[in-house]
Amino acid sequence: MLAPAVLVIGIFLIFPALWTLYIGATNYELAGPNSVHPNTVGFGNVTKALGDPDFRNALLLTVIYVAGSAVIGQNLLGFGLAWALPRAPKAVRTGTHGLVLLAWILPSTVVAFLWFALLDQKSGTLNALLGNHSTAWLIRFPMLALIVFNTWRGTAFSMMLYSSALATVPPAQLEMARLCGARGWRLLGDVVFPHIRGQVLTNTLLITLWTANDFTPYLLTAGGPNHASEVLPVFIYDQALVGDQLGYAAAVSAILLAVNLVIAVLYLRLLRRRT
């Protein structure tokens, strides 16, 4: 009975992962002699990556991108909306839900086009609103633009998860805490978070992994200017399809996979300790 599921997992998950590991241990290229008869280099590509300043720059930018737009941005904004909207007027609640969900379900290409229209140097909406028609936001502040963009685009998932989690908090405990004078951060820390800490960790794990593997920044900045927004997925694309270094790109993909596994294990261990 499990054979079809095992077959699907093997074809679409295990085989590609093993193939990536194999390619990453060779000097396989997109064209030329090494595309026909690649040589095995072992951990040579990994050693090359660790000594590559462009790889270290991409790794640092990925950490900034994940921390700013997922761990902090989507988490805080998603929880803030989930906490505040139930007490907002119905029109505000409905409109906010619609806008947030629309940002999440629109195709990435459409979202990128909308942000180009907003941040364009010559005819961008933001420059028109500020009365400044010359600020090149995607060139002067590429990482900040990507962080705000991804926070806006991905908040819907956190908002929905936290809305469901907050519904499990006993209203009697909230009311009792308010009668005892608990407000603001004290109310959240003493009553709310002990009930939803598992959901907080689960949400943080999921959005961290999604953001670390997100290729959408390429649609907005293509990694530029001068590698200033080249996160790891964009770096891998550039090395594989622009630089023709498929073996090197596969090795970097394996490194990214290993980092994802480490993050997942750490989150799961932390979740197990707190539940």
Chain-averaged pLDDT: 89
Give the CATH architecture: Orthogonal Bundle
How much of the sequence is in beta strands?
A: under 5%
Structural class estimated from helices and strands: mainly alpha
Poorly predicted residue ranges: none
- Count of beta strands: 0
**CATH overall fold name:** MetI-like fold
Features of the shown structure:
single chain; mainly alpha; 275 residues; 14 helices; MetI-like fold
Can you offer a commentary on this structure?
By secondary structure, this protein is mainly alpha-helical. It has a single domain, classed as MetI-like fold. It is built from 14 helices and no strands. The chain has helices at residues 3-24, 33-36, 44-50, 53-84, 90-105, 108-119, 125-130, 137-140, 142-166, 171-179, 184-212, 217-221, 232-242, 246-274. Helix 5 (90-105) crosses helix 9. The longest helix is centred in the N-terminal third of the chain and has 32 residues, at 53-84. The chain is globular, with a radius of gyration of 22 Å. The model has no long low-confidence stretch (mean pLDDT 89).
